Amino acid sequence: MAKDVGILAIDIYFPPTFVQQEALEAHDGASKGKYTIGLGQDCMAFCTEVEDVISMSLTVVTSLLEKYQIDPKQIGRLEVGSETVIDKSKSIKTFLMQIFEKCGNTDIEGVDSTNACYGGTAALFNCVNWVESSSWDGRYGLVVCTDSAVYAEGPARPTGGAAAIALLVGPDAPITFESKYRGSHMSHAYDFYKPNLASEYPVVDGKLSQTCYLMALDSCYKYLCSKYERIEGKQFSMSDADYFVFHSPYNKLVQKSFARLLYNDFLRNASSVDEVAKEKLGPFSTLSSDESYQSRDLEKVSQQVAKPLYDAKVQPTTLIPKQIGNTYTASLYSALASLIHSKHTKLAGKRVVLFSYGSGLTATMFSLKLNEGQNPFSLSNIATVMNVAAKLKSRTEFPPEKFVKVLKVNEHRYGAKDFVTSKDISLLASGTYYLTEVDSMYRRFYAQKVAEKSRCDNGSLTNGQ
Amino acid sequence: MAKDVGILAIDIYFPPTFVQQEALEAHDGASKGKYTIGLGQDCMAFCTEVEDVISMSLTVVTSLLEKYQIDPKQIGRLEVGSETVIDKSKSIKTFLMQIFEKCGNTDIEGVDSTNACYGGTAALFNCVNWVESSSWDGRYGLVVCTDSAVYAEGPARPTGGAAAIALLVGPDAPITFESKYRGSHMSHAYDFYKPNLASEYPVVDGKLSQTCYLMALDSCYKYLCSKYERIEGKQFSMSDADYFVFHSPYNKLVQKSFARLLYNDFLRNASSVDEVAKEKLGPFSTLSSDESYQSRDLEKVSQQVAKPLYDAKVQPTTLIPKQIGNTYTASLYSALASLIHSKHTKLAGKRVVLFSYGSGLTATMFSLKLNEGQNPFSLSNIATVMNVAAKLKSRTEFPPEKFVKVLKVNEHRYGAKDFVTSKDISLLASGTYYLTEVDSMYRRFYAQKVAEKSRCDNGSLTNGQ
User: Fold this and answer.
1) CA distance A412 to chain B (A)
2) 3-state SS string over B250-319?
3) How far apart (Å, rounded) are the C-alpha atoms in residues B265 and A157?
4) pLDDT of A456 over the 90 cut
5) Residue A463 placed within a domain
6) What is the ipTM of this complex?
């Protein structure tokens, strides 16, 4: 069996267009700090009419292959996690095949995985399992998480975002799976769903979704701890992981989640909870589960108690989600990317525990072990390739009025046919794919903004037959 | 690593309501034989307003667990293949969690896999890989293929169908994967897709889809042969497999596909093609690929030449697809179920080659090895449990007028909210789940038709939170 299977390489793409949460607060007539402190968000990325989940995934896959110098023929499996449905039958993966077909590689397994924000994690697990299975043919797996999160006008609108992340999977990786330390919690819930098929917007019960998230977190942590304890013969606590990476719809929920883990450790009488913390949490030891999810006091006290640990174990994972917003399937991996961006030289030997959540609901907590790796598959090279600081810096801010106009255009275009886009690519970086046209048969056409250095290469993608 | 991983158990469910293709021909004013001989179909199953892909999958999973006496706690992975979208975010898998939650099992990995009719195969491969991976926790995997295929009025309407199939996956199986003999062909095509999000009906180019199917078949067969030859050091031909099982949208395409494989063997100068066949196919040896897909003469001659082999290697796989129609993700496995139904006592030691196709497009040809197995996981018990003959016999025929009315009702109900169904379950067998209501928040409610013997058990499913 292949050894040390995991993530070899990462690239991230997000649109170069964003809105400031502070400006959006004012525009929406929300109280000052409602989005920036209440949600804990700084900015929100969004697709203009020339970008969508397909163009973003074409961009990030092309970029990853190029920057890590991977021959497209070396890819044996390609799968996509997304909850942004453009076609109900044809997978996003088949659009990405255009990149591989032109190199003569059509023997690539994998399709799209779907359940809300969890699809990317499902795709990643599938890819890792493939490399460990007897079906593996020695080539790389490639996982793409791509989503555009948009909400109808109202309280959920500031929790949108957009990004695509590509993860290369194979043996001898710098980011490996501790596959036995894993707990899932899956159940039937209606916290966030998309039953209105003609609309891009979800039906969402924000309060219920937060409770579902925290319940799933508790359950997954319980499973992970009990599996760890069965295998290692000792208790697991927060002290046993160096970093915690959460699915990050908005930063405030990440803060609450980490505090919730501390409360779990307190109830389990784990060594991670010191005497001062025990004393502060004492009054909450007899709450029922339901009461504990509703208690504002517990929320406040546990976050206060968890603050120093949060700063050490979670804060380094929060940059990108706070800057680009909720990116659904890409959210958890944009938090992981933030950690690598901010700490890459100090991560060798560290354990990172991740919590993936998708409404409806599906959730898994799992553990990764990091090592420096070898170029091009090293943590430091991943940080260099992702180039997060420069990408964030080169973005263009849209005032809220212009952002709302963009959303209106996209609303009308969603599910529509027979239109051409503005083809305005002035804000896109070289190499970015963009939507040019949807014809009368709903067929979608994309082109690539040609890089200065490779103008000879015709960037347009021909259509499937 | 777990050994002899594969399919341990199968159950199949299809609606008890069907229309005769012969009657539909007359109703549609089509020429006599257009659907029965031209398409090669006998009957078509369809869901009335009380059934859908969720109810069918609840029915088949409950039935499989009960009939093979599997404790729901023994399931560690559950995934669904489907292209019938009821919600764009919440997976069908989460609806199925209701069965497991009430037994206290929420630690079950897996979500939905999507790309047209291929999603079930993707889910099956994922499940097998999981059992072979380091993440396997010793429990069973369960794969569900569920689809309702309906088409707008017109030439594609008789190619509908409906069914759900459940496949239990684990080690020491009677149906094991020869995982190294596998070839995939995936590319970007618009042969059949569902871009009109508000409609249940696809956009389909029948002629293009057939050519895509045959091109993918050629490509997958080429890959499978070359992999076999690299490993075994000898040529692979049709003689090396006892049965060929095809994705079966309509039987005529299955006949054409098998003949196409023979034509491939002829071009490869394989031992499976005798002198008489060589002589008959001789005139077609210089056709270009494109010409060969268009040539009616080649189609006719190759089918004629292949007829005796078709009767032996394919005909035993055709019963259910001809009786219930195209069931998308369930189609290939309903053909496999037909083989086990008709030949179960004679299958030990046999090799079965399967071809899975999903428009858009994704396709894989793969190989299974069969052994009798041990009860309850034996081929003969699978045949007994599936009880195909009795299920087909107990169905109720609807005249075309009534069938069209049902489709009209379903058309209005698709994506709708705030309605109750007729709750008319007179035609459903005991144990069948059915849709009772979709509330004003689009939440769906199902109940189970209580079996005479277990009236004490309240069959209704409570809703997720």
Assistant:
1) 13
2) CHHHHHHHHHHHHHHHHHCCCCCCCHHHHHHHHHHCCCCHHHHHHCHHHHHHHHHHHHHHHHHHCHHHCH
3) 59
4) no
5) no
6) 0.96
8 Å CB contact between B45 and B161? yes
pLDDT band of residue B1 (cuts 50, 70, 90) is confident
Average pLDDT, chain B: 96
CATH assignment at residue B45:
3.40.47.10
B253 belongs to a structural domain:
yes
Compute the Cα dihedral for A100, A102, A105, A107 and give only its sign: positive
Give the pLDDT confidence score for residue A455 in this predicted structure. Answer: 34
Contact A115 B89 (CB under 8 A): yes
Please give the Cα distance from A379 to A375 (Å, whole number). Answer: 9
Tens of pLDDT, residues B156-209: 999 999 999 999 999 999 999 999 999 999 999 999 999 999 999 999 998 999
Cα(A252)–Cα(A233) distance, integer angstroms:
35
The answer to whether B89 contacts A359, with C-beta atoms less than 8 Å apart, is yes
Question: Which amino acid, residue B296?
Answer: R
> Which residue on chain A is closest to B86 by alpha carbon?
A195
Of B87, B134, B186, the CB nearest to A195: B87
Exactly one of B47, B117, B145, B220 is catalytic; which is it? B117
At position B42, the amino acid (one-letter code) is D
Catalytic, B43? Answer no
- Active site annotation includes B83: yes
Select from A125, A134, A442 the Cβ nearest to the Cβ of B135.
A125
Q: Which residue range(s) make up the domain with A151?
A: 6-454
Token representation of residue A295 = 């208690």
In this complex, do A187 and B94 lie within 8 Å of one another by their Cβ atoms? Answer: yes
Interchain proximity B196–A1, CB inside 8 Å: no
Smallest CA-to-CA distance from A19 within A334, A319, A403 is with A403
Mean pLDDT for chain A overall: 96
- At A1, the pLDDT band (50, 70, 90 cuts) reads confident
Q: Which chain A residue lies closest to B443 (C-alpha atoms)?
A: A190
- Report chain A's terminal Cα–Cα distance, integer Å: 39
Average pLDDT for A47-63: 98
Residue of B nearest to A221 (CA): B107
Catalytic residue, from A247, A299, A341, A344: name it.
Answer: A247
Predicted confidence at residue A382, as pLDDT, reads 98
| Residue A96 amino acid letter | L
Size of interface A-B (CB pairs under 8 A): 273
Q: Do A351 and A178 form a contact (C-beta atoms < 8 A)?
A: yes
- The predicted-structure confidence for A171-216, as pLDDT tens digits, reads as follows 999 999 999 999 999 999 999 999 999 999 999 998 999 999 999 9
The answer on pLDDT for A452 being more than 90 is no
CA distance A239 to A254: 18
In a domain, B460, yes or no: no
pTM of the model: 0.97
Chain B partners within 8 Å of A202 (Cβ): 89
Any domain includes A24: yes
| Contact residues, chain A, for B194 at CB < 8 Å | 87-90
- Residue B141 dihedral angles phi and psi, to the nearest 5°: -100, 155
B247 is catalytic: yes
**Cα(B47)–Cα(A35) distance, rounded to whole angstroms?**
46
Q: How many domains does chain B contain in total?
A: 1
- Which pLDDT score is estimated for A451? 73
Residues of A in Cβ contact (< 8 Å) with B361: 94, 464
Burial B272-294 (b: 16+ CB within 10 A, else e): bbeeebeeebeebeebeeeebbe
Nearest chain A residue to B204 by CA distance is A441
Average pLDDT, integer, range B68-74: 98
Q: pLDDT-derived band of residue B451, with 50, 70 and 90 as boundaries?
A: confident
| CB-CB under 8 Å, A194 with B87 | yes
Q: Which of A47, A117, A212, A225 is catalytic?
A: A117
